[in-house]
Automatic annotation (TrEMBL):
Keyword annotations of the record: Hydrolase
Protein's recorded name: X-Pro dipeptidyl-peptidase
Organism: Microterricola pindariensis
Lineage of the organism: Bacteria, Bacillati, Actinomycetota, Actinomycetes, Micrococcales
Domain Xaa-Pro dipeptidyl-peptidase C-terminal: from-to ranges: 330-566
Membrane-spanning residues: none
Amino acid sequence: MTDFRTISAGGRTIGVHKDLRVPMRDGVALVADAYGAADDEPRPALVALSPYGKELQALALTMPPQRRPSPMWDGCIEAGDIARVVDEGYVHVIGDLRGSGGSEGEHIGNYNAGGVSLGQDAYDFIEWVAEQPWCDGRVGMIGISYFGSMQLLAAAERPPHLRALFISGGHYDFYETTYHGGIMWFMPRAAREGRGGDSGWAFTDRVKSRMLETVPDEEVRARVAARLADPDVQAWPNLVHTLHYPTNHEAWFDIITNEFDGEWYEERNPINLASQVEVPVWLQIDQGRGWTIDGTIETFNRLGGPKKLTIGSYPPMQSRPWVEEHDKMFRWYDHWIKGIDNGVMDEPAVSVFVEGTREYAEGEEFPPKPVEHRPLYLRTRGRLSAEPESMDATAAAPDGFYQAPLTVTDKVEVLRWTTAPFEEAVEMIGTGAAHLFVEIDQPDTNLIMRFWDEAPGAPRRLLTSAYLKASHRELDLELTTEGNPHHPHTRAVPVEPGVIEEYVLRIYPFAATLLPGHRLVAELSNDEPLSDEHNALLPPDAFHLPVGRPVTHKVYRDAEHPSRLVLPFTKG
């Protein structure tokens, strides 16, 4: 064990064991820092594990929390407020995952560690912490995003000394984290390689590509060639570069070469492990990143033990260092780890912030209120109406737009439909669907919808979004229900140019009340506007892969082609 010393941080004295070596069952050692009280007396421990580097997390001791769009915001400082953890009577243990930072071994792939599951390493790490003289044997976990995913991977292994989890902003369905509706998202590149306000992984020469390490060379070459033949990939320099030169881009290379869902993603999907988790779990997520809310809700539904779900307010990006949900977390851990009867389990299991009224809807499941899915139809002259279009295709000409690739333009074309001002408040909570009848003149395109609350004289507010790559339009009919579509994303089926197809986009979960005088606005494009009210709140790399070919889109909304939104209106 390393020597114990004290440090000064924010006017307080904190004790720290630096560069602890934590042995794994196969002989590999991980490194960790343990921050606690200056007297070094045994206390419960909160464990944080990630590949982002423990030294980066230590900046929480010296850097005030930064909100987006601060240039100091760093998306990878996610292990929590060290000083607050210590003040609350816990030891904060921050470790580097196998193959990253100062830890030994190899890290192969996104949730794989040299053939050893990260859950197994987390089990060994937690049990080692519980045996240390500065820990009283009671252990929880801490941290958001990747740290949050690690919590589920750890708990599924059922380490005996793990008492409870509090997961904020976790990522669960790894395919849906990287391909929204089949459209590649750039944020995983930022989080892994360090771009646009993210420091990225604490890379070593032992972080390796799972594809290059485990897949035959012929298959890798075939996958690379197929991706390079994709016009969208051809038009994006970073993807072309990474496919030709994967060294030092291993984790990103793996994502690029796996554009379909399947075994590669499912074997590292924490949702699949949720039913094995027995300890109490509180899941928390903020609105504005609908795909992450989707995975959080699915995880909540699969958990079998004591559980809570809180969906907070927009905007989506929390401060870094992460501090927002510490009050909830310590109430949870004081109850389940310290045994304090603070009433946390007397409150409803599900609490959802409703934009508009800025109140919480509470219940025992999501949605927390009864809902019924009702349609709003796309009509002529950019209208949204509860009544369907009565004119046929000869009288109701389709709406259309031509989008040139972003290699030749910086203008993103957007179609817009809006309701009349609401006369009374309208509340919606849950998932939805957009049924669009579209004709395109290419084998593929993106369909991106965003939904806004607009009021006269006020900034508009993003409510939620929907994404679908046209070639991924197949539905999983066993899982799909009204207002709740599911796509398997296991293959691409090229579109026949000039044919009108029905595309069903999943509208990600949201909760909002549109007040009297407000309008609901639906916007459709095939790329994202480069700058608007929403994107200013996100890191620069939080965009999706644009379409790399010129495409003409015609959206039909006549009596034969009832393009519509199916939305979750609360009853009563």
